[in-house]
C-alpha cells in the first residue's frame, strides 16, 4: 500500500516515481496489457526498421520483449524517474545495444521534429490525465503537442489505455481535430487471470497533414484484434462503443464468479452493420443440483417465436431453464434483419462468445450443448416492410409455429417484441377442377409458407376472450342470428372484426382505425375486406366516438343508442407510459361517458387493458367503475392483458357459472355444420376466470 500515491496528481511527479521504483526494486511492473496480448495489435503498426519512441517506459518489459522478438530494435525509452532509467540502463545496456534509455519529460522532449515513425505509450496518458482540471488538461495538451512534433507524417501514436471516458474523449477530440485518423483496438484477452477486470484498449492515432477547412473526421473501432475496423460518426459514439465493451467485460466477470439473481439481457451486434444480431438472456436455476453435465447450455429460440410466453417473458424463461435441467441457460433470440446459416452456423458463430458467460464451477474443456425446439432455427419470411407516418416502421412476416403451422404477423419495429396482429395461414389447395400432372408437380420448399388466411382461427387469446364476452348480450339465449351492431376501435390485421362478421351472421360491424396504412396492410396481407355489414372509418377513435355521442344526445330520450357492443383494441404509441393499451385518453372519465352514451342500456363495452403500472391500473379501474356500474375482468394467463367487460346497468349482473352456461349456448350456435371451427377455442373456458369487480 505504501507504493500508492497520496493523490492522483502524484502520478505526474518525478519524486513519486523515483520512490516507487526504489521501493519496488528490480521486479518489472506492468500496469496492464502484457506483451502476448498487445503483440497482435503492435505487429500491425510497428515495422522492423521503424524508429520507435516509448514514453513513460518505467521498468516494463514491453520494449525488451519487442526487441528480443525481432519486432523492432531502434527503440528509445524515456521516463521522468532517474531511478528507473538507471535501473533499465543496467538491465538492458549490454544485452540490447541498439536500444537506449534517457531521462526526459514527455512534456518537453529534446528530439528534433519528425524524428520517429512510432510513439508508444503504455499507461502514461492514463497516469497524467487523472482528472479534468484545467492544469491537468494543459499538461495533456503539451504532451500531445510534443508527440505530434516528434512524429513523422504517416507515423502512429499507439496509446495503451484502460479507456476511461474522459481519457478517450480527450485523445479522440484532440487528434481528430488535428486531422489524424483515430482507431481504437480492443485487446484480446489471453484468458489468464487479469490484474484488471476492465479490458485494455490501444488507441492508434495516425498522423496526416492538417487540411485547411473542415475535413471529415475518420474514427474507427476494432472490437477484437482480428476484426475489421468499424467506422463511427462521432467522438461521442466512439466513447459509447468502448463503454459498451467495458460494461460487457464487467458483466462477464460478475457472471463468472456468482450466480445471477435476476435475468441478464444483452445484445450481440452484427460486425458490419452494427445492428443487433442476437439477443441473449442469462437465466440461472438455483433449484438445479449441479453435476458434471448440467452446468451450462445454450437454447436457440426458433425465429418468430421469441414473443411466445415461454421465450419472451422472465417467468417463461425461468420455467424453460428449470425444465431443461441446467444450472445456467442462455436463451438466444434471432433478429429479423439478419441472415443465419442454420444451427451449425449459429453454433460456430456463438461458441466463443457464449463461453464468456459461463457459470462459476464449469469444468475445464466442458462440452456445452446447443438446444432448440425440434433441432432447427425456425423459419421467418418478411413479406412486406414499410413505414407509416403514424405507426412508424413495421413489417409483415410469416413464421413457422409448432409442427407444420405457419402464422402471419404484423410487428411495429418501435416495439419489436410485441406482435401487433397475428393470423394463421392455411395450407394451399388446388382450385376446383384443377389437376396437376405428376411430372409437373413441384415439391414445395419447407421454407415457403402458404398464403391464404384462416379466418376461423383467432390467434390472440385476448381476442378469444373479447368475443366470448358477447354472451353477455341478449335475453335468455344469446344467439348469433340476432341483429347486432358492433363498433371496434383499432383494426390491426382485422382478425377480430372479421371473426365477428363471419360468425355472427346478422352483425353489422363498424371499425375505426386512425392509420390508413393499417387498412392497406389488413386488406392486402390479412384477408380483410369491407362489405354491406363491414365498414371501416379512417378516423381518430376519440373524435369518432365524440361525434356519435353528440349526435345521440340530440335525439329524443326514447331513441335507442347505436351499438350493442363496443370493443377497444387499440395500442398506445407512447412507450413512456406504463399502459401500452389503450392510450390514456381512451380511459378518461369524460370520454368513457361518451362511450356509455352510444352504448345500448343492455349492451357491453369490452376493453383490452395492458397496464404494467399498478397505480395507473387501479386508477383506470376506479374510473371505469364510476361510469359503468357493472364490471367484469378476465386476466389472460401468461400475459399482461386483462379484458374488461363493462355494462351500463347493474341489473344484468350474472355470476360466473351463468356466464359459462351462456358461453356454451353461444358456442353451440356458432358451430354450424360446414363452417370451420377451431376445436381448441372453447368460449366457456374464456369466462371461467372472470371476476366481478
UniProtKB/TrEMBL annotation:
GO terms for molecular function: methyltransferase activity. SUPFAM superfamilies: S-adenosyl-L-methionine-dependent methyltransferases (SSF53335). It comes from the Eukaryota. InterPro entries: Lys/N-term_MeTrsfase_sf, Methyltranfer_dom, SAM-dependent_MTases_sf. The keyword Ribosomal protein does not apply. GO terms for biological process: methylation. Residues 50-171 form the Methyltransferase domain. Residues 434-444 have a biased composition (Basic residues). CDD domains: AdoMet_MTases. One of its GO terms (cellular component) is cytoplasm. Keywords: Methyltransferase, Multifunctional enzyme, Transferase. The keyword Methyltransferase applies. Residues 429-450 are annotated as: Disordered. Belongs to the methyltransferase superfamily. PANTHER family: EEF1A LYSINE AND N-TERMINAL METHYLTRANSFERASE (PTHR12176:SF78), SAM-DEPENDENT METHYLTRANSFERASE SUPERFAMILY PROTEIN (PTHR12176). This is eEF1A lysine and N-terminal methyltransferase. It comes from Aramus guarauna (Limpkin).
